[in-house]
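Repro:
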Amino acid sequence: MSAVSDPLTQSPENVSVSPAIPSRLSGDGRQLPSIPNSVPFTAGSQSANRNSNHVLNNRGSNGYGPFLQEYSLMAEYNLLQQKKIQGVYVMPCAKTPLIWSGLIFIRQGLYLGGAFRFSLTIPDNYPDGDCPTFVFEFPIFHPLVDPATGELDIKRAFPRWRRNINHLWEIVQYAKKVFYKIETKSASNLDAAVLYEQDRDVFNSRVAESLKLSKDRLYQPPNLDDPYALRFSPWNEAIHPDTKRQMIQSSQKQSNDAGSANPSDLGLTWIESGQTKVFTRDESGNA
């Protein structure tokens, strides 16, 4: 089960996703206890333990021990699920909660049909410290995406990361928004910015080429060596039709039990074979 809203439970690409991490917050507005006073975690202590487990040794400079930090990250993940950002799928990595991997589907606008795999890397001293980094696995042709590294310019929206004010779901939402409202000021990709402002036809052509290349890369193994990362395979008539039918029948039962006829209320969607068009079943229960 993947998360955020609208989780991808069936597609011709046969997405493979591990179970989501159980929610730990009730959503009643409760916050973590105040941060205890402690001696800052110095660079010297980091170097002394550089060969130890990354997560277990991480304390940051804010007094958060590794378990409180992980609790905070899981609270953020639970909040991300509650926001139900449509067309976005996110999963913390199995080896460390400080890296989240995911996929963004673009369903309208200049980047219609785009499916972009990404990773969100959270600083070691979270929830203090600098802004997390957001990197697309494939450098998409976009004014705010570095053409060499694929990194999205997040700091233009979050110039200073503020604990308990800024949240990780806001970064994911912003990463989706940049494909609908194109910004060119202080661009990371100057060629894309100039073409968008001066030659829209050529810009659209470069975007279309980028979309095709990014789709082709979806069938390749993800860059992250993580069992939770989304993986795709071509439609297989020997496997996928029966699986799709079982999932639709399961969604019907869940919808009836929940008193809802809309699969999206349960976080269920499907992708049309051979494209990234999302569809759901009609009132008769047929896909």
